[in-house]
Specification:
single chain; alpha+beta
Length: 175
């Protein structure tokens, strides 16, 4: 329902990107949210409203969910960076564990993540924060959260509809 609303809001024609979900989910060690998979297949990676960067698949790596997750995990595990995590006070999700996986971010430094717990597959609360601010928790689907960011001016502090940026989607390199 929310994926369809995003498609209608943006006027986007779904791409139908083929994805080997078994391989992706095997590497992650968890199944991904069903609506995220729909978004991924319909849009691919790219930018909503010229400001929300959605991670899915992109040959240029910028919008590629798995490439970004691997890079974040490598930095989070790097002993030379100390005890500070980019998603402090959390850690980046590692297979079999509990942590955050970023699925979108904004040009203003907002982060949109899932709190993933391998012991609780199928539960994907969204944690979001404005740059250097506290994490806010949302019990809603990925596509509902994204729709509210784009279309609901009262969805604060993350709603961007009041900026009149338009509900557009610009694909990454792959599309």
């Amino acid at each position: 329902m929310w994926v369809q609303r995003l498609i209608e809001l943006t006027g986007w024609k779904p791409l139908g990107i083929p994805v080997d979900w078994a391989a992706v989910e095997e590497e992650l060690g968890i199944p991904l949210p069903a609506d995220y998979k729909e978004l991924f297949e319909a849009f691919g990676g790219g930018t909503f409203a010229d400001s929300v960067y959605f991670l899915a698949r992109d040959e240029g790596v910028v919008f590629d969910f798995m490439s970004q997750w691997r890079a974040h995990l490598a930095v989070d595990r790097d002993p030379t960076t100390g005890e500070v995590s980019a998603v402090d006070p959390y850690s980046v999700y590692a297979p079999g564990g509990k942590g955050l996986a970023t699925w979108a971010f904004t040009e203003w430094g907002d982060q949109y993540c899932w709190l993933i717990d391998a012991q609780r597959p199928g539960e994907y609360p969204i944690l979001a924060r404005a740059e250097d601010d506290e994490w806010c928790r949302y019990e809603m689907s990925t596509s509902e959260f994204l729709y509210r960011v784009l279309a609901d001016a009262d969805f604060q502090p993350f709603g961007i509809a009041h900026y009149n940026l338009g509900a557009t989607f610009t694909p990454g390199q792959e599309a």
